[in-house]
Amino acid sequence: MQSEDIIAAVNAVFVEQFEIDPADLLPEKEIFRDLGLDSLDIVDMMVGLQRTFGISLRQNEELRQIVTLGDLHAFFLKLVKENPDLAAKLQKK
């Protein structure tokens, strides 16, 4: 699975759940400040990402440090790299 596919899967959650214009989904955008999500939206975002990637995410230090969309992309790129079975799940969707 290509990095672009993983980034597209993450971005799709923002487009589908929050109706954010794909052109606004730039790596440097801050999730709260620039994309306008609040703490309740974050819960919805996490549920959407868990469904997309077929995983269960637990609160950990890495998740707490995510500020920008690029941080979120990097988190999932690393997660898929460390867990190749996730890439296979995504390709089946």
Write structural notes for this entry.
With 93 residues, the chain is an all-alpha fold. It has one domain: ACP-like (Non-ribosomal Peptide Synthetase Peptidyl Carrier Protein, Chain A), CATH 1.10.1200.10. It has helices spanning 3-18, 39-53, 61-64, 69-82, 84-92. α1 (3-18) packs across α2, α1 crosses α4 and α4 (69-82) packs across α5 (84-92). The radius of gyration is 12 Å and the shape is globular. The two termini are 12 Å apart. The mean pLDDT is 91.
Q: Radius of gyration, Cα only, in angstroms?
A: 12 Å
Q: What gross morphology would you assign?
A: globular
Describe the biggest sheet? none
What is the straight-line distance between the termini? 12 Å
Arithmetic mean of pLDDT: 91
CATH topology: Non-ribosomal Peptide Synthetase Peptidyl Carrier Protein, Chain A
CATH-defined architecture: Orthogonal Bundle
Percent helix: 55-70%
Quaternary structure classification: single chain
Order of helices and strands: HHHHH
Concise account of the structure shown:
62% of the residues lie in helices and 0% in strands. It has 5 helices and no strands.
Give the arrangement of secondary structure elements:
Layout (H helix, E strand, L loop, with lengths): L2 H16 L20 H15 L7 H4 L4 H14 L1 H9 L1
Structural descriptors:
93 residues; mainly alpha; Non-ribosomal Peptide Synthetase Peptidyl Carrier Protein, Chain A; 5 helices; 0% strand
